[in-house]
Each structure stands twice: as structure tokens, then as C-alpha cells.
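User: Please work through this fold.
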Amino acid sequence: MLKAYAEPKRCRSIMAQEGATQTMSTQTTIYPICEDRRSIDKEVTKHATDSVLKDTSKQQVEANKPSKIPLFSKATKKETKDITLYNLFHKHWIQERVLGEGGDGIVYLYQSRKQQSKCIAVKIPRNNSISARNGLVQEVKNLCLLEPHDHILDMCHATGGWWPCGPAIFLPVCELGDLISYRESWCAQQASERKPKHVSEVTIWKLFRDMALALNYIHHELGSGIRYVHNDFKPANILVVTPPGHTEHETLPEEPIFKLSDFARLTTWPTPTGQRAQGFDGTPEYAPPKLEQIAPVQPSADIWGLGATLQFMALGIHPIQSQEAFVLERKAQAKPYPDLEDKREWMSEYWRQRIPTVFRPIHVAKAVLCKEHDLHVPIDYQPYSARLGYWYAQLWKPIAYRPKASKLASLAIPHMDDQIERIKKLRQTRKKISD
């Protein structure tokens, strides 16, 4: 649920992994550095994960007990150890600012005291609540299922011992922020150059491509007969990194690397025997149709979320029914509705869950969008190509016809790569003619 693990330009493309490892080398750490996880036996990782769960369960028990704790009790010793680890880390790293907040956790940006170019993100439970701690424990377990992948945000490190409460997850910092902040920065850059505040078609193809690969990985490549659903696919959970070879440091890259993040709600599909089925647990503005939100949630919900995210990228609005159209529909059904002027009521969870996501084509004229597709806000929009519009529309089809991530990876991605190259060549040709 976190918005971004963003980083200032002075921390560009540095993961600071070795610094975090050096800091904690004198303490008992629970999870290995991501690049070493391939060579570690799965049973070791499972045992480590169980240790975090056990530690957190102990913390919960202690939290619910009366406060008559002896001076040298086990709980006191553990707290002392957690404070020692916390203090040791802060000898090497300085807290800069908050990067993002969500229901489960809060993420801080830290900078190395020795090398200011090194930064790392640290995610800890929000408000020291038991539910938040459980959420982060689950996220660590889920992250241990993932091998390094070009389009998945991998954790650098994690520990159960952290003051005032654990676990703490150490993550690489993505210098261009999340998809929302990247889009805002791109449009601002366009405006400064007196160009339309319009996201490049190359960028949208690249986003489509990278996220299709990320979803194919968690849907199809994590285990034999086992698939996983991200269950909270949205722009705020897609982080953006400068690609290697980008030399124009003063400008945003048109083809950055997009990475899927926040795996706290990763859900197994089909539901294993003996486990309770999990329904959709993501953000209402990017939720699939109501029937698809009922347990068990399926991988197709992520595909719908990808379509909704591409609409946001193209149009710059949440992919939901407009407030005006929602009120008219509720009036016709003789159902209650919020006041159009009451912004606070519209932001309540009750109404957010009742406003549906809606398909809007991205290859038609703005006049068509306004007249036929419920577009009621001014946007700086130019139609995208019919090919992009076609593949984008496939993501919004009924569940029986919606393409799987494996189909997108095998059939659509080669086409996407060709389209990106065609657009680049066409630009070069036009530039030569104009020169």
C-alpha cells in the first residue's frame, strides 16, 4: 500500500546493499542478501522465516501480558538486543525522510554517513500495531518466495530484531519514485519544454512490457502447479529506475525500468487445501469487477489492474466512473449517493468501494472520450496508436477472454518491442526530413 520508495538524484542508482550487511554483521540477521539466496537451501530460508514469525508471536504475547516484567527478563534482553541493532545501524546510516506510508508500514530513506551517494529504504511496522507487524512478517515471507527478477523489487535484507518493534525490511531505493511521481515529473518536463503534457507512447509500451513480464513471473514461474496473485496492482506499487546507459542526467528517461513492488498481499492460487480462500485485497480504484473480488481471487485480477494502470498512465486520471455519472446512476436506482461538493465523503472507504472502474479507450479523439466514455476532467491528451489501443483493450475483457500473463509474454511482448523500435525509427526519419 505504500506510495513510493523514491530517492533524490544524489542517490541515483545506488543500492547500498553491502553497507547494510556490514552494519548488521555483528548481529543475528534472519534473511540473506538477495543475490545469495539462490545458493541457500530452501529449508534454511523456511526456518529463517519461521523464526521471524515466532519472534513476532512472542512480541504479541508480551504486549498483551500485564506490565510486571522483571528487570532482567527475556523480554528485556530481547529489547536490549533490538536497541543495540538499531543503534549500530544508525552509526553508519542517517535517516533522511519518510518515503511512503501505508496501512501496514512506513518507509524511511537512509543515507550512508561515509558515502552520501549510497541510500537505502527501511520499511517498519506502522504505529507499532500487531496487525502491521503481522503484515510485514507476511511480506518478508512472500519476498523469500521470489528470486531476483529485472522487474520485481527485491529486498536487500530483513531482520526480526528492530527497535521499537520488528521486523524491518531493507529495500533498494528507486531514484525516479513510483509511477505516479514519474508521470508528474514527465509532464512537468514536457511543460517546461513547451510540449504537450502527454506521456510518450514508447513509455506506455515499455510499462506494458515490463509489467507483463513481472506478472508472468509471479503467475507462472514461481513453482510447479502454484501461481500467485499480487492482489494490489496499481501505479503506487510500480517503482521506476533509470536504465543503464542513460547519459542525459538532467532529463527523465523515456524508457525507464519499471519494477513491481509491495508483496504483502501476495496470494496463492489455487487456494491450497486446508487454507481459507482470499478475496481481492487491493485498492478500490484499481479493483476488478465485483464478482472477481469474491474469494478466491484469481490472477486475472492483476491483468485487470494492469489495464487500469495503463489507463491512468495515458489519461492521468483514476480509471473509475466519474462522480457525476455515479450520482446519476444511483439516482436512477433510487439509491443513496454522496453530495458532489462533499470531498471528504467521496474519499471514504464506503464510497470508494462502490464506485466501479471503467474502461476508456486510449486511441480515440478526446471529443469521443468526453461524449461516449464518461470523461469529465480537462486533460492534455493525444490519441495513441490503434495497436496500443487494441492490446490495452484486451486487458479489460471479461474474465473468460482476458489474456493470461503467459500469453502476453509469449505473443504480445515481441510485438511491443517491434512497436517501440518502429516509433524510434519514424522519429529519426522525421528529424532528418526537418533538418
Notes: The chain has a mean pLDDT of 83. The first strand starts at residue 93 and ends at 101. The radius of gyration is 23 Å. The chain has 14 helices and nine strands.
